[in-house]
Amino acid sequence: MGKNKSRKKNGSGEIIDIFRNYGFIRTDSFGQDMEEIPFEITKDMIQYKDGKEFIEYSVNVNFELKKGVFLRDRNIREAINLKFDKNNLITRERKQSIPYLEQVKEKFNYFNVEIPDLQKLKKDFLSTKDFRDLLLNDNVSPSKIDEILSNFSKSNELIFKTDDDVLYEYLKQEGFHPYMLEYFVNGLFLNKGELSLLVPTEKQQKLTVSDIVLIDKIDKIFREKILKWILEIENAYKSLLSRISTNETGGDIIAGNVVKYWANSTDKEKSSQYKRAKNRYKYLRHSDQFDYIGNEFIPIDDLMDQMDLSNLENLLTSFDNFSKAGIEKDGQKIKAIFPWVRDIVLHKEVLRDLRVIRNAAAHGRPIIPRMVDPDFNPNWDMEIDNPTGRTKIAKWDLFQAFQEYNLRKGATEETSLILMQTIYGNPYRKAWFELNFIYHRFISLFDSKRYQDFCVESAHFLNYMDLTNRNDEEIFFNPILADMGDLTAFEACGIPPAYRVIDNEAIISRDVAENHRKTTIQNQLGDHF
Q1: How far is CA 485 from CA 315, 458, 468, 500, in A?
Q2: Average pLDDT for 315-334
Q3: InterPro entries annotated for this entry (predicted)?
Q4: Where are the alpha helices (DSSP H) in 94-128?
Q5: Which residue, 250, 428, 238, is CA-closest to 328?
Q6: Is the pTM of this model over 0.90?
């Protein structure tokens, strides 16, 4: 898996897959055998015949390779300007959009989710027994009950005309919503086609709609915890700067320089942050804690109140830059290097990467399926076969420490690259790995309370080793990650379920962080620690 030195931008290959809006080309044109590169279907490829749409193309195709296409929080490569063999054009009917309930039935069948007998469900929905009993308990007269139940039955007959009407109502009552179709991906589940290769059909696990609803519930809890843990990272870094500004020699001067820099900045974002911070405690009694009249600038704590993950990196970098520049203290110019801040800034890339998972969690987008879906990255196949040639993994801040960890565990260099690429190549898994890394690598050094709280809470939620004492009530009211169950038939197929993947990579990050700390602190910070 040597580094790809080919700089060729034009290629040729064979179209191996065509979907409704995109396809894949297999090519050997760029120094790597059997690469699969995605391309978009263009309007000039679509033909119309008898009211139907067809995609016109040839199996053999020439194309240009476009790099640096930003898709789902990472850069990918795609094929553009396709040139087909005009003498060997073929057409394929273009797939049409599938109605919601048809998608449900297709996905449920593909991933072994059972749908109850719809005729029995319809009979239950049309039954008036429970409603009659309720009316009798309310002392409604018999004649009035007959009238109400007659209208009730007529209304239900109009609602439940078809099996699809019954299915829709069933899904609604079970708490299943259209967005939950996003959970049906290989990696979180194993489709029954692949499962059948190793597990006989009669022995395959049959899932229910309530199982999918539980997965969604667990994913929501996971999102809430991710948001909380990222917020605590922000608070830990802010508390560190606050403590330095009040307790460390020269810290107050550095903090003042940072605030002054923000106040005088022509950058719109910084200017807006400072203005909001300046009015933060206006006309509030809490403002008595600081002399806003005698001081030209606000305290750094007020400014930090306006910061979140997206701009905290700039604040830390500015604080570190002013520290390196030196300050006047008691008539002498000194450099006030604060090692914890310097350490964080040297490796600020990992803080920046958290935005991906934070934004998804904040906007309610499912996270677990994105972490384990191999198709989430359209360049997955080409990258996993040649990580150093197709990605910038070697420049990853964690690369060396992670590589050393894998080699120490007995992996070859080739296997180690593949193991790392499975994390590096998926922005959600990478962010999850780095979230844990930040706690073990940085926060453990200066905020033991937050670090311990994170360790205890995450260990409880991620633990899958001892589940013997968990009953249905506990799973319902306080589910943990492993309560989603083994959805990939691990013992039979060897494919670890999502809860094992997520927990195992959190554990690995702790060892990688320890290795990273030993090497980088000694090499980069010397005697400051």
Answers
A1: 43, 18, 13, 10
A2: 85
A3: Abi_system_AbiD/AbiF-like (IPR011664)
A4: 100-110, 118-126
A5: 250
A6: no
